[in-house]
Write a structure and sequence with these properties.
30% of the residues lie in helices and 24% in strands. With 418 residues, the chain is an alpha/beta fold. It folds into two domains: 202 residues, UDP-n-acetylglucosamine1-carboxyvinyl-transferase, Chain; 140 residues, UDP-n-acetylglucosamine1-carboxyvinyl-transferase, Chain. A hairpin with a 2-residue loop joins strand 12 and strand 13. Helix 1 runs parallel beside helix 6. Its main location: cytoplasm. Belongs to the EPSP synthase family.
Amino acid sequence: MDITITPRRLRGTLEAPPSKSAAHRALICAALCREGESVLHGLSPSQDILATLGVLRALGAKIDLCGGTARVTGIISPPQGAACDCRESGSTLRFLLPVAGALGVNATFLGAGNLPQRPYSLLAGQMERHGAAFSRSSGMPFSVIGRLRPGWYELPGDVSSQYVSGLLFALPLLERGSDIALSTPLQSAGYVEMTVATLRRFGVDIEARPYGWHIPGRQRYHKREETIEADYSNAAFWLSAGALGSPVACAGLDPDSPQGDRAIVRLLRGFGATAGGDDPLSVQGGRLHACRIDASQVPDLVPILAVVAALSEGETLIENAGRLRIKECDRLAAMADCLTRLGAKVCEGPDYLRISGAPALRGGEVSGWGDHRIVMACAIAATRCEGPVTIRGAQAVEKSYPDFFTHYRNLGGKIDVL
């Protein structure tokens, strides 16, 4: 789907969408409960969540999704073999690959889009040292056989926090305790904190250690009913629109959430945005100025922060962002290309973007790069362009936020489908 957005400010209030990250984690924990039914409310059927639902069903969970509510009966008798289609979801692959190993399922993992090129070899290497065997070391499809053994798992912390989360889901199922040790400082630490918090709500004990975590074995997940919390990662686009001068309020966010992307409010205020009214989580426009951003803990915020930087006075440096090159696309290259096409001045480095701000962008035509966050960032940039913005491949938003353009129109945005 290709669209053209006519520039105009957005206005209004909307409920923040449910967190995809929280939904993945709650669904996996519910599927690993061997007794009773868990009920999860507030799910959004994005493509990534549908991928996780499909793989959990393939591994033996029974899941009834009606509207935004999932009723989950956990895996009691795992199948001997399973075809696990992760679609384009890196979270699904990295979370459920160790789970398949812990359950002893001979599983074939398939993927689409850029997923077959995204790395998993470090995680696979640790699994191979503990009883699993892989049919190939990179690319997809691949098969994994064997059952994971407990032990000492060691991972770098600066590649993907999802490797750690995947093991945290799986290792409590093993017959003895295990440990996860980090060989380098953990990046995207907030996502691991989300995983640990979810595990504890489902009755699983995770013990923090100076080196990482100790995970006791022979644990049981406990059924529960809960509502998926609102999402800071996707709310960041609306909060940024507020910082750029659109009077938009985003309701429903938990100020005490463990989500790392809760940092969006602090980062926008670092640009000079101010609190909106009495809501401590809202922002409103002001005279924005450049700042320096360490992206190591907030990689998913970089696309929209790059847009804010392009419309802030001075030169902003977004650094420690090398991992963005192995996301759904090379997000550093994508944002440098898109913003340049819209009229911004951007210097792209190996792990940084240096962006010179301007009062407005001129508009133009950009590719969505097959990446939901690139598309949404460009749509927000259009609110401060002098001419129309055409986005090719705008359907990529379905990966995480299928209602994004409906909400954009509800806030007064003008979108024409080409």
